[in-house]
């Protein structure tokens, strides 16, 4: 089967950076040390070259990911190999997150690219929870990541058919949590809002859909594709939580045009170099901060603090201020961890250089 790569997003700009004796392909799925790619002459399972492996060992962000454009080279033994990852127009990166010794979250300064060359980021949040109608904090976090990626976020409140009343109020709350971002209610089973979502994906535009397990991401992908391309499972009745059905990220071309990347449910989402994304999500608080009496106001009790005045008057919800402070601290922490890792790598590099210089000096006649 042959493919028109222009319908997958291939451009003349990308063609200008293609190495000699290679052909372009787009990564549709990644496995350990290999990838599934779509090239003009069909789909291929390809392994990584030594150069790609070395680059990704030094920096995990350089590892090929779903949505990447790669240069593949034909080898004498009769197979393709990924020779190089081509420059990304956008990259959806989350920070490395792990549990520390006291059960809290800590960042390791290592980023992980979830998807690349994405035009749109659909943030899927189910409208029904066992304890809440929507997790506004999670929406804020995912929208911050979306803005930072270079893609345009769109929030989708899924399973709207299960919400008996107050849907308009819920949508208003979500719009307040994501200023300037389009918010839509969607029921994939009934088809409500699906056509509207599809209109975002005209031509060769690529979207990634993110959200927790049980948010209906795969069901929405199937609705957009007009058939079953991703397995789905029902939410557990006992606690309302979803089960991981999608266990990998996959790029899916849609029959009506455009491409969509389905992703596994994300339990923990660490920030990675997210200062600008956080500022955009909390543009309302950033605007208030500009009105504070002191330029270095910490919004903790200083006189003339416009942020605290808005909080006291009820114009600014306390939940939103708490979320803003939390994401700011986490973004600063991840930035410091990343800087520390880069300094360590630079120190190790110079240690190797000095060691080689001393060895060369001893070997001189």
Report on the structure:
With 365 residues, the protein is of the alpha/beta class. It has 3 domains: 5-88, Nucleic acid-binding proteins (OB fold (Dihydrolipoamide Acetyltransferase, E2P), Beta Barrel), CATH 2.40.50.140; 118-267, Rossmann fold (3-Layer(aba) Sandwich), CATH 3.40.50.300; 275-337, Probable gtpase engc, domain 3 (Ribonucleotide Reductase Protein R1, domain 1). The protein is built from 10 helices and 13 strands. It has helices at 12-15, 50-58, 136-149, 167-177, 194-199, 217-225, 275-281, 283-289, 306-313, 318-362, and strands spanning 23-31, 34-39, 42-48, 69-75, 79-85, 91-99, 105-116, 120-126, 152-158, 182-185, 206-210, 250-253, 259-262. It has a 6-stranded mixed sheet, sandwiched between helices. A 5-stranded mixed beta barrel has the order 1-2-3-5-4. The chain has a two-stranded antiparallel sheet with strand order 6-7. Strand 12 (250-253) and strand 13 (259-262) form a beta hairpin. Mean pLDDT is 82; it is low at 97-109 and 235-244.
